């Protein structure tokens, strides 16, 4: 049998109770070496508890955790060979940036000179060469978080743990720092476990996303799979605002399904569908709206694949328009990026679906 690689992570049957409350239910999770895996989910779903158990800051009630093939379940945090980046940066304010990064190295037994040399290399790695002499307060939020990343990386941990590392940064900086973290992770090839409640951030940085719901894994897979093939309404909604419409699967052949909603038919790629009632998850940006300028609805059949609707509200947001559109059986949310003139409330429209961004929920 081959030895598990350095940096691999394995949760087996891990349960965590706080008193009588079970925060994590029998978690099984494998993380491959060199990948960035995101734990994603709404507040209270158990992401931080999972990360803290991996870090050694919480002890599982039962089950086991392995890092690089070694059982670490009962090991204290400082013997686990992991390093953590917190949302608060947690830098020592009275110490220089260089000393902050060197601190863990010295504590780990390196001489002052050696620790400073390695810390200097760490700062260069995160693009902060020359900033070592400053105090943390003399850096921007984004730079401080890069110092925190450097401080963790110089320890050369088997696994880097990141707990909502961007939540103290403003939106623009968040985008930049997340790209930097991902580039660094891919360039150096370390394993990273990243906690966030922001699905866009998860989609942007991850090799795999693990979506959690009430202490359980709701779905895991590559970003695109979760976005394009959600197994439940919860995932469809969580991975990007989706409209969930009841539909009828009327035909299945060669990996495609034909569905019917209020008499309108549409064909889409579908893996494990069988005829019968189902739900269709439709991304807000996968819907096309066409103004229906007084064309009589009766007598002639409407254009293929289109559903009649009426605009309930519209909001112009610069690069796109958001609509609420009333259909026969429900109200849907639509994002239209191509409209020059927003359609006013009350306008009759017909609705179509794009090929991408719609998925059958068969789970
Ligand atoms: N020390 C504790 N004592 C009691 N309950 C706890 C403790 N820590 C966490 N919990 C509970 O366990 C559940 C999971 O918490 P956890 O912090 O892991 O969620 P989370 O997904 O990280 O949420 P958030 O995004 O809000 O940080 C929550 O219901 C929380 O209230």
UniProtKB/TrEMBL annotation:
Keyword Metal-binding set for record: no
GO biological process, one term: quaternary ammonium group transport
InterPro entries xrefs: AAA+_ATPase, ABC_SmlMolc_Importer, ABC_transporter-like_ATP-bd, ABC_transporter-like_CS, Mo/tungstate-bd_C_term_dom, P-loop_NTPase, Transp-assoc_OB_typ2
Region (Disordered): 290-310
Top-level taxon: Bacteria
GO molecular function (one): ATP hydrolysis activity
Any one Gene Ontology cellular component term annotated for this protein: ATP-binding cassette (ABC) transporter complex
Keywords for this protein: ATP-binding, Nucleotide-binding, Transport
Name of a matching Pfam family: ABC_tran
Domain ABC transporter: 9-239
Family of the protein in this entry: Belongs to the ABC transporter superfamily.
Protein name according to UniProt: ABC transporter ATP-binding protein
Species, as recorded: Stappia taiwanensis
